[in-house]
Amino acid sequence: MTAIWQRQVDLEAINARLQRGAAGVFGITVTALLPDALEATMPVEARHLQPMGALHGGVSVVLAETLGTLGCILALPEDRRAVGLEVNANHMASVAPGQVVTALCRPLHLGRTTQVWQTEIRRADGKLACVSRLTCAVIEGSIT
Questions:
Q1: Which of 91, 99, 101, 137 is most buried per CB count within 10 Å?
Q2: GO CC annotation: what is one (predicted)?
Q3: Considering the entire predicted model, what is its pTM?
């Protein structure tokens, strides 16, 4: 299988950059770059919970959008960048605090002007907790 990535990839540098933004607030860490997917983990802590005590759906969307956008950027040449157009999520199972969720993000479409990325978020027991899809526009210009 040929890797889809068009940019130089250094997980340590990626994670350092992520820690400076929203991903850092939520403790998102990219753990693997596969030939056609990104994998990440996120602890589920008190700051991640909705009022009933389970993982907040919006936090799952932050995880999915972080990975989808990153995947899109890495799959583009240096003279292109990605901007989000739409994100959705379906929540299938609750996640209790104290667990670490694992997310796997793969492209569904790698087009010239749009990309679509799907993220599956799983609980520690492997049960699917959320599926999210992100659509990005591909535009000219480098990422700063």
A1: 101
A2: cytosol
A3: 0.93
